[in-house]
Amino acid sequence: MEQTEVGNKQIILKNYTDQIPKETDLELRHGNKIKLKVPKGSGAFLVKNLYLSCDPYMRGRMRDFHDSYLPPFTPGSVIEGFGVSRVVDSDNPNFKPGDLIAGVTGWEEYSLIYRTQQLRKIQHQDDIPLSFHVGLLGMPGFTAYAGFYEVCSPQKGETVLVSAASGAVGQLVGQLAKLHGCYVVGSAGSSQKVDLLKNKLGFDEAFNYKEEPNLDAALKRYFPKGIDIFFDNVGGDMLDAALLNMRIHGRIAICGMVSQTSLSNPQGIHNMYALITKRITMKGFLQSDYLHLFPRFVEDVSCYYKQGKIVYIEDMNQALESAPAAFVGLFSGKNVGKQVICVAPE
Amino acid sequence: MEQTEVGNKQIILKNYTDQIPKETDLELRHGNKIKLKVPKGSGAFLVKNLYLSCDPYMRGRMRDFHDSYLPPFTPGSVIEGFGVSRVVDSDNPNFKPGDLIAGVTGWEEYSLIYRTQQLRKIQHQDDIPLSFHVGLLGMPGFTAYAGFYEVCSPQKGETVLVSAASGAVGQLVGQLAKLHGCYVVGSAGSSQKVDLLKNKLGFDEAFNYKEEPNLDAALKRYFPKGIDIFFDNVGGDMLDAALLNMRIHGRIAICGMVSQTSLSNPQGIHNMYALITKRITMKGFLQSDYLHLFPRFVEDVSCYYKQGKIVYIEDMNQALESAPAAFVGLFSGKNVGKQVICVAPE
């Protein structure tokens, strides 16, 4: 019997860039028609991608730099990222048709998957949206969890600044910090986001950094006694201003630097001397170093969510065609909350 | 009976500066003649200063900035710093004439001391020079000890870069790292210092940063597999180059930034993104946070010294008149080893 062939739209890297990604650095391609069958003996399985995650770290894979923790994408080929997918056919006994999985997949409608070490099976639960497995319960959520508890050494009553605070990571950091008994202030780039931070996400205060002519003065206003913990997703001017406002023995978790326009010519940070006078610990981290905590994270955060103790804001785009614009929007703060692409209805 | 009066030469801060200190920022003054007697009921004691320590941190007290961990000096008044002194007269039952003390004193021939919390009594030992109590066994030595063991988390077999490696702190860091089983490379600013590092202080390698047109290339040459620990006394370009060459989970102890020409307009550090990709911990510190370890430090380092396992290089200037030049020489690397002023022969 002839097998059905289907189209497979894909997002392709057109060319390397170390500047802020533009839509034209990516391209939608109508890939070859594929059969929805996995070759026998391949050990692979075929998935239908339901949700794809737009994450700032992916920018690092768009440049011609081979010495980082992840290899670059290949120009002319489909890019990859975190996603939620359903198994369509399988030659791998551990993954059966119908299984839902979360993990690294292709930015395309269907992906043939050989490597399973970055995948996990997930259960569809009525009270948790499936797309949360690339957000609240996925890499960004885990980044917030590991970064806050393992890197920031938080104590009840401490003061916490979160930059890009309504983003995929920041919104959870702030809520975990509140649950921990901290005073939490978020920085974001629009009045809409500031409103969400204060009125939906439970931050004590929030401000629009674009409306602050002097970030140092803004931080002094919100932290008259200084900052114990800075969870930084943006780098640049905000990091420099925070250094001036840290308290003695403060901690800075360096999670991202989404403010940087050029990865090859990054902005200088000037107030490093504060590290000494205030005895600050500044630590860069990747969630992948803490994967032993992932099961506990899923349990804790699912529980908080189901109890209504935390919420999670998603910015959902429809269809793979919208993926390039959604992705590049991360770097101008166009997204409100975690940016996800719905590739196929569940 | 009329008491003897003596002259009391003093070093005065002439004016605040946040640039590299110049000799003319300090001034020798012939202070009022003083009696070598302490007022009864004052609880104070009078010391004759024998050795004074020139330390880069003192620069921070020469600027009109009141929000640091130490208050600024007062223009027109005598400056203070670490010294070794002998008690001449005392109204304090804990300090008797003839006692030797190390700690904070005035940059002058005689100081009347009221505050004793930063002082400790020392014993004259034939096999340890008295001046070592402001160097190897004083604040700089303790900075090396606390910084290396408590901030750098060293492991046997790791690679260590030390900047300003022949200085008061660096020379001990390198030797402790060697005793710990590390591979140690020092950076210094002259061929004489490089020679001392390699042939007297036991560093595995050393280089003259002034002769390296490309510090990144120099570090790649000495650390083909990267740097586990960077003990940084200089900041600026060396810190930026080291960031590019750190290994995953590397540690950077930020001890000083003697390279900076302006404290109010410091140089930017550009390669901060490496903190994330290599998961680097960068920690500024002050020895004063670790004073509970001071007794163990004195015991350990005295023992190493007496056993011939470590050496210590001093640059000794004679007479208080030479103090301004000796101090400002720190910032051009004129000193070879720990800079001390001998104010009075023992």
UniProtKB/TrEMBL annotation, chains A, B:
Family matches, as SMART domains: PKS_ER (SM00829)
CDD domains, per database record: double_bond_reductase_like
Organism: Vitis vinifera
Pfam annotation, one family: ADH_zinc_N
Residue ranges crossing the lipid bilayer per the database entry: none
SUPFAM superfamilies: GroES-like (SSF50129), NAD(P)-binding Rossmann-fold domains (SSF51735)
All residue ranges annotated as the Enoyl reductase (ER) domain in the record: 45-341
Protein name, UniProt field: Enoyl reductase (ER) domain-containing protein
A single MF term (Gene Ontology): oxidoreductase activity, acting on the CH-CH group of donors, NAD or NADP as acceptor
Keywords of the record: Oxidoreductase
